[in-house]
Amino acid sequence: MSGTYDLRRTAVLLVDPYNDFLSEGGKIWPRVEPVAQEVGLLGNLRCVVGSAREVGARVVFVPHRRWEPGDYETWDHPNPTQRSIMERHSFARGTWGGEFHPDFQPQPGEVVIHEHWAQSGFANTDLDFQLKQHGISHVVLVGLLANTCIESTARFAMELGYHVTLVRDATAAFQPEMMHAAHELNGPTFAHAILTTAELVAALREGAA
Amino acid sequence: MSGTYDLRRTAVLLVDPYNDFLSEGGKIWPRVEPVAQEVGLLGNLRCVVGSAREVGARVVFVPHRRWEPGDYETWDHPNPTQRSIMERHSFARGTWGGEFHPDFQPQPGEVVIHEHWAQSGFANTDLDFQLKQHGISHVVLVGLLANTCIESTARFAMELGYHVTLVRDATAAFQPEMMHAAHELNGPTFAHAILTTAELVAALREGAA
Amino acid sequence: MSGTYDLRRTAVLLVDPYNDFLSEGGKIWPRVEPVAQEVGLLGNLRCVVGSAREVGARVVFVPHRRWEPGDYETWDHPNPTQRSIMERHSFARGTWGGEFHPDFQPQPGEVVIHEHWAQSGFANTDLDFQLKQHGISHVVLVGLLANTCIESTARFAMELGYHVTLVRDATAAFQPEMMHAAHELNGPTFAHAILTTAELVAALREGAA
Amino acid sequence: MSGTYDLRRTAVLLVDPYNDFLSEGGKIWPRVEPVAQEVGLLGNLRCVVGSAREVGARVVFVPHRRWEPGDYETWDHPNPTQRSIMERHSFARGTWGGEFHPDFQPQPGEVVIHEHWAQSGFANTDLDFQLKQHGISHVVLVGLLANTCIESTARFAMELGYHVTLVRDATAAFQPEMMHAAHELNGPTFAHAILTTAELVAALREGAA
Q1: What is the least distance, in Å, from the CA of D83 to any CA of chain B?
Q2: Which of B4, B5, B10, B77 to mutate to test the interface with A (most CBs of A within 10 A)?
Q3: Which residues does the UniProt record annotate as the domain Isochorismatase-like (chains A, B, C, D) (predicted)?
Q4: In this structure, are residues A138 and A162 in contact, taking their beta carbons and an 8 Å threshold?
Q5: Which ipTM score applies to this complex?
Q6: How many CA atoms lie within 13 A of D105 on its CB side?
Q7: Chain A closest CA to C126's CA: distance in Å?
Q8: In the CATH scheme, what is the code of domain D7-208?
Q9: Domain residues of chain D, as ranges?
């Protein structure tokens, strides 16, 4: 699968680039690290985000809910991930772990979407609305995790009518078989393109030519 | 994981029970058959649907778009599954393959949702609305395919605030590793319960006691 | 307020053009007729739809639920309009009143959206999705009623990120003060343009030049 | 129209209770004041919120976007209200006008929804999700303005499957005819109950008996 991109209508969605996920010392980094190192996650994220800015494609930040005291406690049925967050306090607001990694900071004019409570960056947020107000029809998903937030955001994007691109080495997961599921088993049923970082960057540059 | 069910607030969502998926001679049955036979799909679907009706839980039909001439042809970017449907005409309207399997026919008063265009039974349909108008807070997903329509419908249900139950032997997929991905890798991150048919039926009967 | 339209990205949404609303002998026509005659509704609808087709803007049909036996009966809380439809059987499926007016028939390739249950053509339907798959960013709303289905569809369109145009003489309502409310009190808070048919047609032709 | 309320499933949605709307010195108070004084808005809001807390119905805060520098500037088509906010900086974040009125402060455990960009408290926010996670099926809308945010939130609530109650003297608008439009022309087509504060409080107490 390949992709061609009208850069005025393309956005890179950078999902959950928190220190807890991406930095040494982050709470979830140890579970992500093996796959992240194998695919070269940090370097590829820098490359995707840098290339998008260079060619003039929009970068949109899609952050998970930063944990606060009381979160989920009055809900009828938090999901398993949320129950686990109630214990480990991932992405806690006001802490270093809940800040974006220093290499992935919003630039002036870049949109930061409302925090999502679960997996999909579209669910219960202004992501679809902000994409429409900026004329976006094509989304490229990078960040974490391949089989949870990235996959749910991608599945929602397709159902909402967007053209969806996954980038197989600009994401990670807790286990290699989760990457396999995301990119070989599930992604091919709903995504319009599944590229490597190198292929994506080439396609973006082609769009800029 | 287990589940307890208030039967007045519980619905079984029966996804895509078409002859093309479930019957000898159906267009997609050959790709589903190995897993379906292994898990005992048809018997388990009969058991889930029969038990739900018996205890008074609502059964809701969640059908895929029945293919019609012209489908997807004017769209900017049909997804890979839709491009394939344009060739093989799955679930074609007016044909046997696009009828529900004879054992899975709506009973008087049972709700049939608008057809979904892609994978999620909630996307671009009245499923969420109909569930609310019938007081449903808990959904149990059965039917096809485990890693596409069932998984997307389940991911959407969780994001919409429903309690979500998967039934590991009342669904099927093209390959065993897709079942593994749905129930061991992805489902445990978003579903509130992942049961066998036997466990579900026991829980429904407990709810009726 | 004025409007400029990129015709490839503009759709006319024709809402509920049923015989019951628009034709002599229709069940609701007597309540619509005074305002319809005053603004020249039928002629203006023909003009808007004809002009859109002429210049190559897309015409999209947005139909209300056609009443069927059983409708709303199992719902927890049908709204007042739905309770009234349960008695008068407006737009009954399979009847002349539930057919589109003969002058407003879908042409080959024109999209007909899923039927909406209440007022908004976006709610519980595939309207947003179909607009995205056809590259639409600007919607022009015509049809019935100005303060119910047209207004709700317009309010939803704005919230979804679309540019919204109302056409003050290509709609009608049961009372003149409902037209006033729609176009002078409420519309100016959410619509991007409120035009006459003549102004709209001029703007569409300008877009085609 | 009357209403009966299961208090465990009922929420009062308090929309936009900002100083800019409700307090002497607020930026928009002068335009709201005549109608607010006439209906006794402040006293009625205190009465509705106090009664809800007393009987154990949930109070949910539904706040408008607090203006920040840069808001709407990169959007393709801000609506007329948003264009006006760009000039007058209503509900500016970090200012007194963008704080809730002192009598309407969230109590511990009360949910504050994501800020809405336009009129509907459901659009692009987590309101529907939070209501589901708290088992709510019935919503009572109070706050501002009757024909914009209250009406759009109410129209969306009905389309989402909720039972909707308007309270005719616990809201206000810029002109009396806007109140008339909201409660006599439009509300009766979509709302399940339109009550006075006194009638609502009696119904809530009945629910508590």
Answers
A1: 31
A2: B77
A3: 10-194
A4: yes
A5: 0.97
A6: 5
A7: 9
A8: 3.40.50.850
A9: 7-208
